[in-house]
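Lab notebook, design round three. We kept the backbone fixed and only want residue identities now. Task for the bench partner: fill in a sequence for the structure below.
Input structure tokens:
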């Protein structure tokens, strides 16, 4: 199957790119070319099969050429974070199939994500860019098209989870350190004064293994957070 040339877009959960050229019609507005996914996070714990499917649907009235481009993320959430783009499962340990597809209007297809490397002692993190790419534009068409795609987060949990999240305080802030070997979601953050009044909500984040996260706080009282690893969650005070 021959696919049109891909476009390069900014990284993130939502990817938006534009192809610009001369306008055939003065003042014409951009045309939207988008797809929809059944999920944007694939979390594969050690006690579940090492594979999952993402349904990709074409919610437009035009044929969509779609690519799936995997990347391995090294040291995620740290200053040393690096994205290694590779479609070779021998390099990443992740098999994605198909990596190219054509979707007619209203059509749905599955993209399978599978781990082919054994789980190790540390979590592996990937990004999977699933996005439409440019087709040809005729002379009568507007030469501006906005493409909407997704940067799916893929998490391969370690064989066994060890370590925990800790916190230190300094200068009106609390710094969390994930000393475990897997990422956690920290949400429902809250801190109250000594009389349990003046309560304030605190921001949420995904804290990757080995990463730090600094949050400004107002009081010297405990900070409450819900800490979630996959489907398991617990409330903790720091």
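Proposed sequence:
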């Amino acid at each position: 199957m021959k696919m049109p040339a891909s476009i390069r877009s900014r990284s993130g959960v939502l990817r938006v790119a534009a192809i610009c050229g001369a306008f055939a019609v003065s003042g014409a507005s951009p045309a939207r070319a988008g797809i929809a996914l059944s999920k944007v996070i694939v979390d594969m714990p050690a006690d579940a099969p090492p594979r999952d499917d993402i349904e990709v649907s074409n919610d437009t009235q035009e044929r969509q050429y779609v690519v799936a481009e995997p990347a391995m993320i090294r040291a995620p959430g740290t200053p040393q974070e690096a994205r290694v783009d590779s479609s070779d499962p021998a390099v990443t340990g992740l098999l994605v199939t198909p990596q190219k597809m054509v979707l007619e209007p209203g059509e749905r297809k599955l993209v399978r994500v599978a781990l082919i490397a054994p789980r190790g002692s540390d979590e592996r993190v990937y990004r999977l860019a699933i996005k439409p790419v440019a087709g040809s534009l005729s002379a009568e068409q507007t030469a501006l098209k906005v493409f909407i795609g997704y940067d799916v987060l893929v998490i391969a949990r370690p064989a066994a989870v060890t370590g925990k999240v800790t916190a230190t305080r300094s200068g009106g802030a609390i710094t969390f350190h994930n000393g475990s070997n897997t990422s956690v979601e920290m949400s429902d953050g809250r801190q109250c004064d000594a009389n349990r009044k003046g309560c304030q909500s605190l921001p949420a984040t995904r804290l990757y293994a080995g990463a730090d996260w600094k949050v400004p706080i107002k009081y010297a009282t405990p900070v409450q957070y819900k800490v979630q690893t996959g489907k398991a969650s617990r409330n903790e005070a720091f």
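Keep this in mind before ordering anything: The first helix runs from residue 89 to 92.
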